[in-house]
Amino acid sequence: MTTTLRIPESLKPEDGRFGSGPSKIRPEQIAAIDAGATTLMGTSHRQAPIKQVVGSIRDGLREFFHLPDGYEVALGNGGASAFWEVACASLIARRAAFGTYGSFSAKFAASAANAPFLETPVIFKGEPGTFRLPEFTEDVDTYCWAHNETSTGVAAPIHRVPGSREAGALTVIDGTSAAGALPIDIAETDAYYFSPQKAFGSDGGLWVAVLSPAAIERAARVESNAHLEGARRWVPPFLSLIEALNNSRKDQTLNTPALATLIMMENQIRWLNGNGGLAWASARCAKSASILYSWAERSEYATPFVTQEDARSTAVVTIDLDEQVQASQVLAILRENGIVDAAGYRKLGRNQLRVGVFPSVEPSDVIAFTKCVDYVVEHL
């Protein structure tokens, strides 16, 4: 392919991957797969070598999130989108309330709306670029929203809806693009779930959930149909949170997992904890995000999409470009120069850059990214 514009090597980042998920994977994680080529890859996930990897993941996440007493880590196949269905089957007893302010927060709400055994959910809708939290509602037993809306670069606060705990309601938070990048007090949640292809620098196809004692008790009660007066609710094993938890307690998953995903995630968690855990990771992401927001605010052609500063994500940064600068053209030239995956979310339909600044991304590479964009725009 002929390069339309060659960016000077001196301006380029050392690593040109800025995806919002899948995200940058460190070379050490790939080396961990190579190291396990004969001892881990191609072996049973129910045998000791893989159980040790899963056990290390669970122990590492306990340390990373400083889990309160009684909280447990569960794993299952299918990714965070599969956990929406798990939550509908096993956590929501009758009716949920959702804060929706982007594509992914709305998809979980749609799952609950389509579940024939659940009552119509209560939706508190915000516009893209803002967040909207659910409000206390008398007949709601589960409150749900996203810590970080990947599609728009909005971060929402995490705290229980006032009065919800006293009413026996659960707080279920999508942490997919936030977990490992944004600060969180897990005690403010009952289920904090995510996939490993963002801050944990691995591949998709796995969900991880941090569960409170209340969430575990709710799942056991719902799956036993103890909350129902009429017809039984069918919870297939693949969507059973109790099945997933029981297997996780044995350091395994119900179904065969992708072993490379587990190996890379385990390596990443050890790397994060070795550098200072969540405090270090969130500070590193905040530094990278501030570089982008400050650059956009100084720019003559770029502006932060999220106008409310305290709603701006420090994991996924969205930058609008002036209509005279076509993001598609800028992105094409960046890709030809090895700088990839900075496109805005397709369904949002904006003239926009979207940059993942997860812990694996070097802040110095973020600085280089801004210089490369400036160079491309100057030479268009």
TrEMBL record:
Molecular functions per Gene Ontology: alanine-glyoxylate transaminase activity; L-serine-pyruvate transaminase activity; O-phospho-L-serine:2-oxoglutarate aminotransferase activity; pyridoxal phosphate binding
GO cellular component terms, semicolon-separated: cytoplasm
InterPro entries: Aminotrans_V_dom, Pser_aminoTfrase, Pser_aminoTfrase_mycobac, PyrdxlP-dep_Trfase, PyrdxlP-dep_Trfase_major, PyrdxlP-dep_Trfase_small
Known EC number: 2.6.1.52
UniProt catalytic activity: 4-(phosphooxy)-L-threonine + 2-oxoglutarate = (R)-3-hydroxy-2-oxo-4-phosphooxybutanoate + L-glutamate; O-phospho-L-serine + 2-oxoglutarate = 3-phosphooxypyruvate + L-glutamate
Lineage top rank: taxon: Bacteria
All copies of domain Aminotransferase class V, residue ranges: 41-344
A Pfam family: Aminotran_5
Binding site for pyridoxal 5'-phosphate: A80, S81, F104, T150, D174, Q197, N255, T256
Cell compartments where the protein resides: Cytoplasm
Modified residues annotated as N6-(pyridoxal phosphate)lysine in this record: K198
Pathway named in the protein's UniProt entry: Amino-acid biosynthesis; L-serine biosynthesis; L-serine from 3-phospho-D-glycerate: step 2/3; Cofactor biosynthesis; pyridoxine 5'-phosphate biosynthesis; pyridoxine 5'-phosphate from D-erythrose 4-phosphate: step 3/5
Cofactor mode of binding and number, as noted: Binds 1 pyridoxal phosphate per subunit.
HAMAP family named among the record's database cross-references: SerC_aminotrans_5
Biological role stated in the UniProt entry: Catalyzes the reversible conversion of 3-phosphohydroxypyruvate to phosphoserine and of 3-hydroxy-2-oxo-4-phosphonooxybutanoate to phosphohydroxythreonine.
Stated name of the protein: Phosphoserine aminotransferase
Organism expressing this protein natively: Bifidobacterium scaligerum
